[in-house]
Design a protein that fits this description.
InterPro entries: ARPP-1 (IPR046699). With about 450 residues, the protein is α+β, with helices and mostly antiparallel strands. The chain has 13 helices and 21 strands. It has two domains: about 10-280, no CATH class; about 285-400, no CATH class. It has an eight-stranded antiparallel beta sheet with strand order 1-2-12-13-21-20-19-16, sandwiched between helices. A six-stranded antiparallel β-barrel has the order 4-5-10-8-7-11. A three-stranded mixed beta sheet has the order 3-6-9.
Amino acid sequence: MTSAAAAPTKVSGYDITGPFTHDNLTIFLLHGPDTLPERPIAMLDEALAKKTFVVHETGTVNELQVENLSTDEDVLIQPGDIVKGGRQDRLIAAAVLVPAKSGKLAVPSFCVEQGRWQQRGVEQAGSFAANLNLAAGKDLRNAALVNGRQTEVWANVQTLQAKLSANVAKPVANAQSPTSLQLALEDTSVLERLKAYESVLAPVVRAERPPVGYVVAVNGKVTGAEVYGSSVVMAKAWPKALKAAAVEALAEWEAGVASRVPGAVVARAFLADTERGADERQADERQLATVSDLAWMLNTGSVVGDATVAYRDNVVAEGQALRQSLPLLSEFQRDELLVPNRNVGTAIAQTAANQVNTPVLNRAEQTFLAGVYYERRDAVLQRPIQSQVNPERNPVMNSTIVYHTRLAGRANVNLNNASVTAPAPVSVNRVQGKGGVMVESRDRNNPSVVIHRSFIAK
């Protein structure tokens, strides 16, 4: 690992080795610069095993709290990490580098065990004891990391279980909790079938030429890629990452069908096509005051006087664009997901609502337009508003160009006890490309530092 992080470069320009293949699974390795400064980093699974890290149950499906108890080691949560326990197993929907002595931080999550909402067996209901798996397959990863839809996550968990059952010739659903993806992945027949993939492909990550990432192809088609902040982190992540790739391959396996092995040119083309969307970033990457920014600034008192008026004017301008998208907000169950911040005067919300001439809006909608809102559930953060606005007039609101999750400066407000849990120190960008989506996570406190990049095929 280098002593200082290199400036982020396009992954499509990295050196590629491979293909490395077993049956219908092909892996390409990506060799490029480290993007994380040198520091001790543990993966989530090892930190939980050492009991230096806690994932707390919050009682809210789409939010968990994480806490790094270590005094000298950061912890990396991979996007799609599945945690076992609590009131129901969850999938953490962001790459987060949790600093040592972090205190409790909020992270977005999705349920991967529909129905259970109580302690399971001897597990703790208030926390999660293990992280043994990653979300497998492009459809499940798109549902959680790109679309941010809980119903899609459940549907894809069910589909994955059904495909695995068919290919191991027995039901993989566990009687203790039939909807649990984690328990299905612990099925002995599944684990036995995965061994062949793992034994052949685990050794391809070698110390003499360490990669920083990998590309996955199943049945001859590229399904995704993961790029880590350093080769050291990649080496630690590889066993669980390979298992997820093997799960996807097993689920998509077709008896008697010989799989085509793609060449490295196919892997590079997938990366390039996806990254090309980054060239279209426009106003979202500028220092533009948005609805969420205003809410935070007003709440913390960091904006006063004329500056407040200027920010309010920006909110009104965006409100005019958002008005066209309001009918789609019902998909988010807005009255449940959008919670007015009681610490900010309601007059601000009414003023902005009036200025965009929307007197018929309910309180939640008025508050949304004024920017005085907080998401109770981070599913909102994970899904762009599907704006119908002309992208040339308002590229910020057009999610087909880019959607930037403004986790920076957002807090999750519990109105029952007026407590505030700080968001995890990560800023997430989503870039829509021709063949896939790149989800890029950066250090919120040092935006030049790239923590992780996920490429997910459409």
